[in-house]
Task: inverse folding
């Protein structure tokens, strides 16, 4: 089961539902939550220098994946999408149509 993952949408419009708050343990609630890349970076990539660095890597990988023209889903999980101040990983699943 994927706990607290984010599915980055290819739209740059605001998402329909705001990202939920962290649970007491610092994770997002179980499930996959939709967010734009901008929403993901704004929420998780601005609190510390380490988070900013990981956000830059996320954006680079996302843009490479989109450029293939074969990206259906882009799911981000791991410590980057938690409340951890200094995340040590960025885990991504890309799915083609």
Result:
């Amino acid at each position: 089961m994927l706990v607290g993952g984010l599915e980055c949408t290819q739209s740059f419009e605001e998402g329909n539902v705001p990202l939920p708050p962290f649970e007491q343990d610092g994770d997002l609630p179980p499930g996959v939550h939709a967010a734009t890349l901008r929403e993901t970076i704004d929420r998780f990539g601005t609190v510390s220098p380490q988070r900013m660095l990981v956000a830059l890597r996320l954006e680079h990988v996302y843009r490479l994946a989109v450029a293939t023209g074969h990206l259906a889903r882009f799911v981000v999980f791991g410590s980057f999408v938690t409340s951890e101040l200094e995340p040590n990983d960025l885990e991504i699943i890309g799915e083609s149509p």
The helical segments are 37-44, 49-67. The CA atoms of residues 69 and 97 lie 10 Å apart. The chain has one domain: 5-9+31-95. Residues 5-9+31-95 form one domain.
